[in-house]
Specification:
The complex is a heterodimer of chains A (147) and B (163). Chain A has 147 residues and is α+β, with helices and mostly antiparallel strands. Chain A contains 2 helices and 9 strands. In chain A, strands 1, 2, 5, 6, 7 and 9 form a 6-stranded antiparallel β-sheet that branches. The N and C termini of chain A lie far apart (42 Å). Chain B has 4 helices and 7 strands; from the N terminus they run H-E-E-E-H-H-H-E-E-E-E. In chain B, strand 2 and strand 3 form a beta hairpin.
Chain lengths: 147, 163
Amino acid sequence: MGSVKSGMGAGGAVVAVVMLLAMAGCGGTTGAVASGKTTWDDQGARTLDKSVVFNSMGLKMEIEVVDMKNSLAGDLMKVQAALRSKNSGTLPFQYRFEWYDADGLEINSGTGSWKPLLLNGKELKTVQGVAPDKRAKEFKLLIRQPD
Amino acid sequence: MKIILLLVLTFLLAACSTVAPNFVFKEQTAIDQNTGLVWLKNADMPGHQLIWRGDDNVYEFVKHLNADNFAGYADWRVPTKGEFTIMLGYATSLGYDKNDMKTWPFKRLLQLGFVNVHDYDYWTATRESPSEMWTADLASGRVGPRPENRPYYLWLVRGNGGR
């Protein structure tokens, strides 16, 4: 019996580890992802296909992505996003940019750090990011609330 | 009487629309005296072929040229298929033999005084489909749809040739 108990304990530990790993994996998508991909219209003018996905209802109630623009800083993709607090109080957020090439492969994977963003009641602030190299044709702006 | 007048007007309009260019060459441009359409004397300002969608494309090149006020103008644009058809029609009207390269449109245009004219396809501004643009082949004189995702040469015009 003792060995059975011991076996169940090991199994439980495995399950716990798997759950922890799964939670850690989900941690990356908790919050909001505002993304933009460079495309060219029929005239050949550069445009930005934009989308915003909230993975947290709580965050969706607190912040909105009002606008996203892109331009070139030399050869580098430059992005500016306008974020507005929906809350009347002061709230802390964090954000970071990820950059992808034309094939959707991440550039300098995992090197972007989370930066703090403090929004006062109903305040609108812009955040900017510049791609690490000229291969970048797509970005993701990840937004989350600090733990 | 009205019908006769209408016929005469139609005939005159048709005649005007097919009149051959009459170029006067300046330092950087060639002006068609018949229409006012201005072609760049240099038929390859970028110095290489350009793509339509992507970095360093046709749109960006034209934008920069206009921002630089090239040759004193800021309204340079890609010619329409009609404008290129007339240009190439004129070049072939000077004598064309497919077996004699000296008579091919690009050679005729070089003989007229244009520079850097290539025996290859040039962009027009006319779209055929979501994936095709009309191009002008300066070797054969053909103007027709070609895949948009390939690079072609760029020769710019300004003004309204009325075509």
